[in-house]
Specification:
little secondary structure
């Protein structure tokens, strides 16, 4: 699945089997300091 740049997204495993999610980034910048969290169930900032 391709998501447009800037769209909000969230991953959820509704099944009982283990779930492996692989995120692939494309472009010239691959840092993580631009992450914006709309909601966070784990209290990260």
């Amino acid at each position: 699945m391709d998501l447009p740049q800037g769209c909000w997204h969230r991953v959820h495993n509704p099944g009982g089997e283990p779930f492996v999610f692989i995120e692939v980034q494309r472009g010239s910048y691959f840092g993580e300091d631009d992450i914006e969290r709309k909601e966070d169930d784990y209290g990260r900032v």
